[in-house]
Every structure is written in C-alpha cells, then in structure tokens.
Protein: Polysaccharide deacetylase
Organism: Kribbella flavida
Amino acid sequence: MTGARGWTLAAFCAVVAVLLGSCGGSSAPPSVQDSPTPTVSASTPAQPSSKPSTTPVRRPGESRARTLMPIVQHGPRDKPRIALTFDADLTTAMRRRLHSGQVKSYYNEALIQHLRDLRVPATLFLTGLWMEQYPDRTRELAADPLFELATHSYDHRAFTKRCYTLGTVPRAGMLTDVRRAVTILDELDPQATRWFRFPGGCYDGTALHELAPAAVTAVGLDVPGADGFAKSSESIVGQVLQNARNGSIVVLHMHGGDNAPLTDEAIPSIVKSLRLRGYELVTVTELMAG
Ligand SMILES: [Zn+2]
C-alpha cells in the first residue's frame, strides 16, 4: 500500500502546490448547481486502516512550524498506470431533492456494476452525507476488494470562498468537517484510507494549514472527467482519453442522478480504450506506492 515513497512524493507535491498556488478552487468556475464536482477535482492519498503516519508538510524557509496538509496531484509519469476515482457528492440541497422524490437515487448502481464486471479497481471518495444516506452501500463497497474508500468532506461545501456555487466551510469549521467525514467512514469501513478530495477541487493555503491535523492527504487536480452535468457520454470519454497519461488520476462521479447522469454510460468505453492503450488501472494507493 502507500509506503514511505508515496508519502515522500505527497510531501513534495504539497510544497510545490502551495508555492505555486496551484489548485482548482480559487478561481471561480462555471455556474453549476449544488454539487459541482464537475470539471475540477482533486483526490486524496489513501492510507488503509493502518493509520497512515501522515507527516504534515512544512513550507521551505519557514522557521516556525507551519504544517500543511499533504497533497498529491498524480502518480509516477514513467509507468503506464492510471487511477480511476469516483466522487459521491451529497449536499443538503441534493438531499432535499432526494427526500422529496425529485431525484430517485444518488447512487449510480450501473456504474459500480460496470466496474465490477470489467474488474476495474477504483478509489471512491464519499461525502459524510452520502455515507449517512447509504450506509449499507458504503459497507458493501468497503467489502469489495476492487475498491478502496476515501473521504470527500461532510456535506460537500467548499474550503475556499469561491468555488462554483458551493457553500463554504468557515475556517474555524474546516477541521471538524473533515474529521466528521473520516469518523463516519471509519465506522463503516475498517480498511478506510486516508485519502481526501476537496469538494470542487477548491483549496488554498489556509485550508491546507487548517487541515494539517486531520492526518489525511489530498489528491489534487489531474484529469477531470467532465461528467458533472454532462450532456453526452461521448464528451466524457473524449475528455478522459485526451488527457489521460502515465500516472493520471481521473476524477469522475458515482452519485449519478441529475448531477452526473451519464458516467455509467461512459465508463465501459473509457476502461476498454485505456486498457487497449496499455494502461493498467489501479487504485490511488497502488498508484502512489509506485
Ligand atoms: Zn465532489
């Protein structure tokens, strides 16, 4: 699983990310509705239940310890391996639509079935609200050796002030939010990883600082699958195939419903095409372990 090498890379990338200020979030994107997990994304390093010894990163030149949440953007570029990841968003607004019957389900079962049929390992990033809505599904996914589970915040609010149309987690509540999601996941999955993905892919130095004690590692933006509110499965397939390369972490969504309605239609073509090109599909933990 993610060994010392992975964490070293994580630490390195974290420093780079902070210095360059690169992150999906700060610049405000298109107008998407509640659960934008749209075209931007980030992901987290998975550390199995053997609680990862996350070593928070210290910015170079800082004499006083200002630790930051580690973040990885992609895996090694010298090996033909790619990690497909799927976020399960659920905001309070989405939950209202679900409970009112406006949306039938925020679990794209067809997508998960495709992954199982095609034997595709995947890393699933779940919001706390989603796990509370689907605890049995979460346990079922946790028990499937194809998948590893990670967190995606509690209720899919953003960790920066401007991030699509997402609500914002106040600075004072950031750590509590992430820990809440981690606690829920740990109760449902004894093998839970410590990878984390920022909602909307939005983060900044403040968020990385506030979340350092959470002992999770964020996975930054690499290949957004563009399946959020997609109008055709072909566009999703094209977006992934045009941008995937060695070490890529592809971000797609598993909540389906009105927010990501075509991901299941796109995934068979994506998987088959990537494999035809010689890529091995692995989890984020496997990717980062080298
Ligand atoms: Zn999301």
Q: What stands out?
A: The CA atoms of residues 160 and 204 lie 7 Å apart. Confidence is low (pLDDT under 50) at residues 1-65. The domain at 4-22+42-284 is CATH 3.20.20.370 (TIM Barrel). The chain has one domain: 4-22+42-284.
